[in-house]
Amino acid sequence: MTEHSLFSRSSGFTLVELIITILLLSIVSVTAYTRLPSISGYAIDGYCNELKSGIRRVQTQAMNDVAVSGAYRITSSNVAGTVLWSNPALNLNIGEDCTGPSCARLMTFTPEDNRRGISINSQLLTFDSMGRPVDADNPMTEFTISAPDGSREQVAINAEGYVSGC
């Protein structure tokens, strides 16, 4: 075999092969991108789990309060993007940087999530000493966290005090 015949075949891709490859990669990437969850979807899941955990904490504290020192209330506010709990007999810290068992904040949206439009419905929930919601007229209390793209998560508390959701 001569050196000329060895290099006479061109190596590489033809223009048609390159165009087909680019088209296939474009189709695959567009399909994969639409199936990825949005950042707000991750935020909503995180807030939902944080809220559910906070509600259970307050519910447990209401059941463990043998002195029956007043109502244990959970209040959500869409305006501030916060969920607070209160009890008139306890001196709770409502500061933004509070931590620990005396912190009244169960959940607070970050300023970035507030700008993105993540919201929570305004709701009031009061527990009795058995961990059940006091409002007997309403069989289910629901906290709904939602985003402008339509994604949403709910935490529901039924009349017997069972906390579900996320």
TrEMBL record:
The lineage of its organism: Bacteria, Pseudomonadati, Pseudomonadota, Gammaproteobacteria, Vibrionales. Keywords: Membrane, Transmembrane, Transmembrane helix. This is Prepilin-type N-terminal cleavage/methylation domain-containing protein. InterPro entries: N_methyl_site, Pilin-like. The keyword Ubl conjugation does not apply. The keyword Transmembrane helix applies. Pfam families: N_methyl (PF07963). The chain crosses the membrane at residues 12-33.
